[in-house]
Amino acid sequence: MNRYFLKIWIVFIISLVSVFPVFSQAAKKIAIVSIGNFRWIVGNRYIDPIYKKELNKIGYQIGHLEYSDVTFGNLNPYNLCVLQWAPSEGDIGGSKIYEEKIPIFEKYVRDGGGLLITCEPGYGAYKNINKLLKIFGAQIIPESIIDPKNDFRQNNYLRWWFGRTTNLNSKNPISKGIRSFIYPLGYAPDGGEATLPLKLNRKWHWIIKAMPGAKTTNGISEPVIMAERQYGKGRIVLMPMHTTFFFNAGYFPIWQGLTMVKGNGYKILNNVYQWLAEPSLDSGIIGGYIQPKKQKLQKITLTQKTLEHTDIYQQMLLEGEKQWTTFTLPVKKNDYIGLIGVHTSLSDGTGTVKDYVKAAKEKGYNFIIF
C-alpha cells in the first residue's frame, strides 16, 4: 500500500478513536439534581435561569430536591447531585435533617453517583458540611484567603472582592486546558468567606489552588480551593464557594460575568459534570431522569372567606396585582410610606432602579429599599 494512503488511514482511525467517546457521552443525557433549602429563596430559585437554559441546550436534564425529600429512590434517577445551601448551625431542625441524609449521600456515591459539594459559608453552615466530608477525608477550614497581588474589586454594582488564580492543575481532567479561574471573596479583601480553603487526606487530588503568594488568615500557604476524589464506584468534587456566584445565580448582572464567563466557571463546571457523571453513564445503573416540559401555572381562585381570615399583608399577596394597585394604607402624621425588598433585573426581579423610583414618586412613596 502507498505510504501516503497508509498515513491517511492511520490518522482517520486515530480520529475515530478519539472522537467516538465524545459522541457516545453526548448521546447519553446527564441528569443533575440540585439539592438545598430553596423555600426561603425568592421565586424558589434553585438554579440560575439563564444557566439552566444553557445547560438544557447541550442536553443536561435538571431537577431539584429539598434536603427533606432526599431518599435513595429520589437520587437514583440522577447521575450527579449538586449540594447547595446547607442549613446553618443555628437551624436545629434543618441540621437534624441534613445529618439524617448523610448515609444516603455516602451510599449514592459508593454505588456510582457523582457529588458536587458547594459551601454557603454564612452562619456556620460549613460545620454541617464538614459532618458529611468527615466520611470522605476532607474538611472546610473557616478562614479567609488573602492575596493582595491577585485580589481585585468590582468597579460598580456591589463592589465585591474577588480573587484571581492561574494555579490550576494541568494534569487534572477537570482543569486541563483552562488557564485561569476567578473565585469570590467578600465585601473586604481580608475578611471574605465566599471561598474557603480545604484540608484533604491523600486520596484527594487538587484541581485549583490560590496563587503561591496567597495565605489564609492563620497562615496556610497556597490553599486548595477545589479538589476531587474517587469513592467506591462514584466520584466527588469539593468546591467550597458560595453557590450564588456559580450554579445558583452566576449569570445575574450584578456579578458582571466575573465568575461564570471571565473566570471560566462555566467551563470548569461543565468539566465537573462530565467527570462526575462518567461512572454512572458507563454502568447505566444510576441516571435516566428526563426534565418535564414547562407547564403553565394554574390560577388560584380565592373566596371572600379566605381573605377574611388573613391579615392585610397576606390579603395583598393573595389578591395579587389588583389589590396592590387599589389598596391604600391609612397614613398618620409623621408616617412614611415606602417599599421594602425590591428586586430589580440586576438580581432576580424585573425593571430598573429608575423604573421603581419613577413609579414610587407617582404613588407618593417616601422611600424604597432594594
Describe the structure.
It is a single chain. This protein has 370 residues and is an alpha/beta fold. Helix content is 33%, strand content 18%. It is built from eleven helices and 16 strands. It has a seven-stranded mixed β-sheet, with helices on both faces. A three-stranded antiparallel β-sheet has the order 7-8-9. Helix 4 packs parallel to helix 5. It is globular and about 70 Å long. The termini are far apart.
Question: How would you summarize the topology of this molecule?
Answer:
Layout: H1 3-27, E1 31-35, H2 49-57, E2 61-65, H3 72-75, E3 80-83, H4 92-110, E4 114-118, H5 125-136, E5 138-140, E6 145-146, E7 151-153, E8 161-165, E9 181-186, E10 198-200, E11 205-209, E12 215-216, E13 224-231, E14 234-239, H6 258-262, H7 265-283, H8 304-308, H9 312-319, H10 321-326, E15 338-340, H11 353-363, E16 367-369
Parallel strand pairs: 1-2, 1-3, 3-4, 4-14, 15-16
Antiparallel strand pairs: 5-10, 6-12, 7-8, 8-9, 11-13, 13-14
- How many E strands? 16
Radius of gyration: 24 Å
SSE string:
HEHEHEHEHEEEEEEEEEEHHHHHEHE
* Main sheet properties: 7 strands, mixed
Question: How far do the termini sit from each other?
Answer: 75 Å
Lateral arrangement of strands in the main beta sheet: 2-1-3-4-14-13-11
Relevant terms:
single chain, 370 residues, alpha/beta, 7-stranded mixed beta sheet, 3-stranded antiparallel beta sheet, 16 strands, 18% strand, globular
Question: Quick recap of the structure?
Answer:
With 370 residues, the chain is an alpha/beta fold. It has 11 helices and 16 strands.
